[in-house]
Structure prediction request, 321 residues.
Amino acid sequence: MKKFAIAIHGGAESVNPGELDKEKEEAYRQGLAEALKEGYEVLEKGGSALDAVEAAVNSMERNVVFNAGRGASLTQRGENEFDAAIMDGNTLRVGAVGGVRYVQHPISLAKVILQKCEHCLLVGTGAEEFALANNLPLKGPEYFITPEKRETWLDKQQEKAERKGMPGSMTDTVGAVALDINGNLAAATSTGGLTHQLKGRVGDTPIIGGGTLANNEVCAVSCTGEGEVIMRGVLAHEVYALMKYAGNSLQSATDKAVQLHDDKLKGDRGILAMDTAGKVAFGFNTGFMKRGYHAADEEPYIALWESEKLKKPAKQKEMEK
Ligand code: ASP
Prediction:
């Protein structure tokens, strides 16, 4: 069987087991499993890494438990503003959007930009006009804003304390990386940004080398956490550079990027990376990162807490005996 693999994340955040109710935890696991399956099926049929990461991210954009598309966080104005980026590691083409409000699937708009636009990054109404011109579905606030997010926003407005089971700064950005049977890597990230962010704030997600990066020669990366910290550390590129120029392994590069300039860059960080062999690394300083991985010929893997370590593939275990 030809090698292929997909890995996803649904955000990293500082949360303790007692702060997350069981129902929400189960909803995360189920949402991750669905997204992983949708991406895996694309690869299994011989589809491209680019289509696989889009499919996985679309699934999480549809799911209200994640902070992307429907159910995403609101700005201080009580509105949605989405950022997304996708990169093809084969052609190094990129599509990214910032601050779009009405596009049902921001990652699909990013992909159309990658495929059809002379520019890499479109923002606001210009990006929405491009979506309309390319027949992508638009939706109004009634589709995106869930009662839960409206309530969080009202709580914030009234400066109420954090509510049980739903810490105020929850960030559930979603992302995916994949390797297809032709050896191509791709990365995609989509987000509603930080809860109660300023109108017009754009995070790391659509910044290539910040929150998203893919290059067939080295790796594909998708980040989550505090966008300002990730951008300032250029963390996706840091993983790439540590592997390419310093010869670090995938996991070591990911771990070092999570710790980079820890004294100056304080904040939540989560990094998902995949190398040219389809191996995966997750690095995070939050204790909690929603994540999943499925490689050809192996069992799918879903985890939330740090203590849930990745199982080794059966073949590797055999070799170590
Ligand atoms: N990185 C995202 C941002 O800053 C947030 C997140 O990962 O949840 O916009």
In short: The chain has one domain: 5-320. The pocket of aspartic acid is lined by residues 11, 67, 171-173, 191, 193-194, 203-205, 211, 224-227, 230 (CB under 6 Å).
